[in-house]
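In the previous lecture we treated proteins in isolation. Real proteins rarely work alone, and many bind small molecules. This record shows how such a complex is specified: first the sequence, then the SMILES for flavin-adenine dinucleotide.
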Amino acid sequence: MTPDVLDVVDVLDVLIIGAGPVGLTLAVDLGRRGVRCLLVERKPAPEFLPKMERCNARTMEIFRRMGVADGVRAAGLRADVPMDVFIVLAMNEPPLLHLPYPSVDEARAQIAAVNDGSMPREPYQLISQYTLEPLLKAEAESLPGVSVRYGCAFESLTQDADGVDAVLRPADGAVSRVRARYLVGCDGGGSTVRKQLGIALRGEGDLMRLYQGLYHCPELFDRIPIGPGPGHGRHYHVADSQATFLIMQDSTRHWTLHAVVDRPEDMAVQFERTVGVPVRYEMLYVGEWKQNLLLADAYRSGRVFLAGDAVHLVIPTGGLGMNTGVGDAVDLSWKLAATLSGWGGSGLLDSYEIERRQVGDRNVGASRYASLGRRKWRAQYKPDIRDATLSGKTTRDNLAGVANVEQRKTNEMIGAELGYRYVGSPVVVDEPGGPEHLFREYVPTTWPGARLPHVWLEPGVSVHDRIGDGFTLLLLGGTAADAAGASRAFADARAPFSLLRIDSDAARQVYGYDLILVRPDLHVVWRGNRAPADPVELAAIATGHRRP
Ligand SMILES: Cc1cc2nc3c(=O)[nH]c(=O)nc-3n(C[C@H](O)[C@H](O)[C@H](O)COP(=O)(O)OP(=O)(O)OC[C@H]3O[C@@H](n4cnc5c(N)ncnc54)[C@H](O)[C@@H]3O)c2cc1C
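The predicted 3D structure, ligand included, written as tokens:
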């Protein structure tokens, strides 16, 4: 291990284990907030291996606030390609079902045209994990307080009242000990950190095993549609008995195929059968993966936190894996920064598990809901599906009809993506009741714990864009409420705070209140139509010094 990284810094603020998308997001956000951190990754370098490919709209809103959204879009799929989903027999035959979903360009136009709070600030972006990770790595490395070390495995930890001691093993050197004030395990499903803490994953493990192949096939995208086959899109599910599906990756030159086959080498035949016509291609990788629906019993033990796949494992159906982990990272980041800079009370870090474990729990449920839908239409498959007979036609029609309802559960998860609200958080002034959490529907709300809905102030400028990195008290509807008490209370608590007057009828209508206090991550702490009765108490709750 080179001395520059570890020996100069005697006690780090935060040690992050694992440079997957979650650890990298955490490193970038902590670095932006001036926290000194070290990110260690077991692999010698980012790998060109396929996993996730869709950042949902909430993740893109978060990336926008981190200043990386433009870079993610530039590296990801071009904005004019639609996200359509097809159920096919093969790529050169008429699809059994076509579910159209907008390209980024189309989604952006839809977002621009609506101002009722029902849309996100940013559209989704398709970007393959192997493109996203190097991009976030470069961003993390550009930040002065962040060190990134690949080829360095975390082995074990001990902790005391003031910090955590970690044993690291670089691939090329002797074991080294690092002390940090906090440690965050972002080390994926097999998390060594979680195991060290004795925290169990609970739920349904190893539900199904599939092989995944990665193919370099530059001509396939340009040849689509192949005869009467489906048009351009993102997912092509093959109606067969092997759960086969083909996914376009961000370059449009790489494709992945998932299927239940006996041997890895069968994945070449499976690709050729799915494409249906001869194409030049190279199979770059084949690996096996398991479907899990698991949630950790705890997200924290003392000064050690867990985030991402280390605490929740979902079936990729619905794309809630990495996206949930990015939400974990940004919830934890500002709370660690606040605690390290002295204004965060103990309730702030306590709230991480309370807020994010309920989202993990709901998203495991959403993923189960989507994958049961997938299983339901696949159960309609019969071996006669290709037959030019009445019974073959009945099988095709029946499968397409069921899929037209059930496949949508995977691709229309807007409620799970945008609608989560932190219930029972110690740093939110909860109101009893609250809207139900719906997987398929997003209903904008400022109910405390929800994320402030996006509202345009002028073309291209959202309320979100006017909110900085601290607490913000929004003043709406021309209110004459005196906010001086709140300003004083947050100043006395030494917490970053600003007032923001918004003269927009649309915003007042969507938000429903004259005063709204939002936190650095845009979640609502409190709302009312008069100045807070006890601003000192409000500041104490928001900063984690007092329970509501
Ligand atoms: C086929 C497939 C498709 C998917 N599609 C989507 C999608 O569209 N959208 C979505 O949101 N999610 C998707 N996912 C899920 C997504 O890939 C994961 O949720 C995501 O990778 C989790 O990120 P992470 O950073 O928590 O963990 P990981 O990506 O697993 O990263 C953990 C990192 O920690 C490192 N590490 C492990 N142990 C140690 C150690 N002891 N010391 C140092 N480093 C260590 C690992 O090498 C790894 O780099 C998909 C998954 C699969 C399998």
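Summary for your notes: Residues 17-23, 40-43, 51-54, 129, 153-154, 186-188, 192, 212, 289, 308-309, 316, 319-323, 325 surround flavin-adenine dinucleotide (CB under 6 Å). The CA atoms of residues 25 and 329 lie 7 Å apart.
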